[in-house]
């Protein structure tokens, strides 16, 4: 699922955390604030982190069954936050501990992706029943016009404040604050309200984003989870199909069917995407055929006439005659000049 970079391009910097990659910094901050407000502080001990992540996932599963998908995603993200170790910390883990961590992460990512799929389906139903209404959209934020909302923490500001406190305790630490660029003030943010149609599209985008991250997690950690991998590809196919990308949807459904052959939902998605992809190809072919024949000479048959062997041979012969005629003309001109020069000498 990796997108090839253009020639000469540079890859973007990696996201600072898994939560940030899944839903962005605002939703990550909201999940952190919720955890801290409900006594789910992140521990330094590995076992306590796993236990807290399991507790939050169980709570989220209950909310998912009650169709409270928004609240469920917040708790799933809280579980991800407890499981999220940086690279240096993971180097200290044993293989068994790393396996337990990866398994729990994968379950949480899969649950988040499924929750966004349900939110997209809810928005689709509301689009039919109340197309003119608006509602808050997950992971889409805007500056709060009344100045009330959530302020996202700035990691750079936190680091500078910690360095200033360290300088108070240790005078040997150099003070380079005068050389630092001033930080832009973080304004209060709130979730943006969108029509249900736009909310549906955004939720399907989040379905694809989270499923792609799940697939990368499986590949990067060398995990063998065919069932979950097939579910991720299926959700990518659904999201791509609903957003109007029939060819990528077809490819995703094919991969899901290879991993889980015989699944009814995957077969249905594959059949639907195949039919729409064929229609798209036919309409595109017809459109380009009409465009090419219109731009070519009306007496010919468009670009195809130039591809006929007879036409190509005729064009090549005409070109050869032009070259031969030009050479003969040069020879005749050369002979005439020689005769004039001889006459002048006489």
Describe this protein's structure.
With 346 residues, the protein is mainly α. It contains 13 helices and 2 strands. It has a two-stranded antiparallel sheet. Helix 2 packs across helix 4 (69-83), helix 8 packs antiparallel against helix 9 (226-242) and helix 10 (246-259) runs antiparallel to helix 11.
> In the CATH hierarchy, what is the superfamily of the domain at 224-296?
Tetratricopeptide repeat domain
Outline, from the CA principal axes?
A: globular
- Level-1 CATH class name of the domain at 224-296: Mainly Alpha
Rounded to an integer, what's the Rg over CA atoms?
A: 32 Å
Question: Tally the helices: what do you get?
Answer: 13
Side-by-side strand order of the widest sheet: 1-2
The CATH architecture of the domain at 224-296 can be named as Alpha Horseshoe
Percentage of β-strand residues: under 5%
Please state the average pLDDT score.
83
> What's the N-to-C terminus distance?
85 Å
Major sheet details: 2 strands, antiparallel
Q: Outline the low-pLDDT stretches.
A: none
Question: What's a quick, concise take on this entry?
Answer:
68% of the residues lie in helices and 5% in strands. It is mainly alpha-helical and 346 residues long.
Q: What attributes does this structure have?
A:
single chain, Serine Threonine Protein Phosphatase 5, Tetratricopeptide repeat, two-stranded antiparallel ribbon, 2 strands
Topology:
Layout: H1 18-23, H2 25-37, H3 46-65, H4 69-83, H5 87-90, H6 95-129, E1 134-143, H7 155-169, E2 189-195, H8 196-220, H9 226-242, H10 246-259, H11 264-295, H12 303-306, H13 309-345
Antiparallel strand pairs: 1-2
